Amino acid sequence: MNEKLKTEADVVVLGGGIFGLASAYFLCRFGKKVILIEKKDVGSGASGSNEAWVWLSSRKQAVLPFARLSQQFYANFEETFGMDVEYNNCGGYIVAESEEEMKLFKPWVQGRWNEGMIEMQLLDAADFHARLPQVSKHVVGATWNPLDGCVNSILVCVALKDAIKAQGGEVWTQTDVTAINLKGSRVHEVECSRGTIRTDVVVNATGSWAAQIGKLVNVDIPILPNRMTVLVSEPIAPFMDTVMMSATYVFEELAKAKKLEAIEAGEVEELEAGYVYTQLRKGNLLLGSTEDFVGYDNLVNFECPVAIAKCINDLTPPLRNKKVNIIRSFANFFPYTKDDLPVMGAVPGVEGFVMASGLNGGGMALGLGCGFTIAQQVAFRDSMIPIEPFSITRKSLY
Ligand SMILES: Cc1cc2nc3c(=O)[nH]c(=O)nc-3n(C[C@H](O)[C@H](O)[C@H](O)COP(=O)(O)OP(=O)(O)OC[C@H]3O[C@@H](n4cnc5c(N)ncnc54)[C@H](O)[C@@H]3O)c2cc1C
């Protein structure tokens, strides 16, 4: 017999990425009966396939409280969530490859200091090369931030899933949401492939797919899938115990809203490449990356690995000389918003429908803190970190 389930929950969380998992976990901790629904498997979106940086350096001031809170959770992760997720607070560099970039760095770092990122340092070429002789001598300087680090992002998702279950929550994977039924203007039921859940609250943590869920309640959600491609190497001996990226990447990131307009107008190429380096505990390198807006096409186009390989060879010649093998590549989507800020909290007109998406390129750094905050909002209608700046009604989102 294939009878459909009828059940109820205080909160239904949609999406098994870091945002949904963290929200669900803390909601359980706050005494709520939670069901998390994931279309595929936990970590099958961006949260399980990324560059693994816990990266504070270029996060905007508005989200730094989430980043600092997340960092505290990572520092005590095993104690809290019951699993070692290979968190490495190794510090990170952003490197300038030309005097022009170095000139841009100076006011940028000054700005970061003014925003409270006082840990960041600006290094000249001599200081940088003394620390990282593996890097090409054409680098003219770098920022260094001891707060940056990395983590095994797949383990983070698995740990959170197990922790939700240990707290009495349910995680339904391979489950499709088909409808969100309202009673008047209030959330009343979630229909999915397994059955119907009576609930007053739905948390939309579907990341790059958030707009599709929005359609079920007639809400436009301005979040786009931004594809990123990354290469994975064979395991090698420790190469550089740090995370590192090129400045191009940061300055392009800052200019992304403009760039998207130019892409739409057909004025510039979609693909952009920048150097991103991480080494996981088992020795594999995660090397990136390219970014483009191609809808939901997650194929790895040949031009992406080629562009990444060029960046890697230019900046870290010993990797080229050692002939390190690339064993696979992957592409996934991060949830892009025009102002690079998440979308969090209530949605006017649909009572009980709560947004928890739009972590952009920083979800591994922000997701635990953002999930904690959404859980506080749902459970207590208030939170330690205010969420008004992240409302779906803010002007900068459109
Ligand atoms: C290649 C790449 C590299 C990155 N590198 C970094 C990095 O180094 N550091 C960093 O901090 N961030 C990085 N990011 C960004 C980071 O991965 C994201 O910001 C973060 O994972 C987003 O988390 P999320 O939970 O919001 O979304 P996701 O992890 O995408 O989760 C959304 C989930 O919703 C599910 N879903 C979709 N539709 C439905 C539905 N109808 N019903 C139920 N479930 C549904 C999806 O299957 C998915 O599992 C990177 C992203 C990419 C793609």
TrEMBL record:
Q: Where is the FAD dependent oxidoreductase domain?
A: 10-376
Highest taxon, organism lineage: Bacteria
Sorted alphabetically, which InterPro entries does this protein's record hold?
A: FAD-dep_OxRdtase (IPR006076), FAD/NAD-bd_sf (IPR036188)
**Transmembrane residue ranges:** 12-30
Q: Which is one GO molecular function term here?
A: oxidoreductase activity
Q: Which GO terms describe its cellular component?
A: cytoplasm
Q: Which UniProt keywords apply?
A: Membrane, Oxidoreductase, Transmembrane, Transmembrane helix
Q: What is this protein called?
A: FAD dependent oxidoreductase domain-containing protein
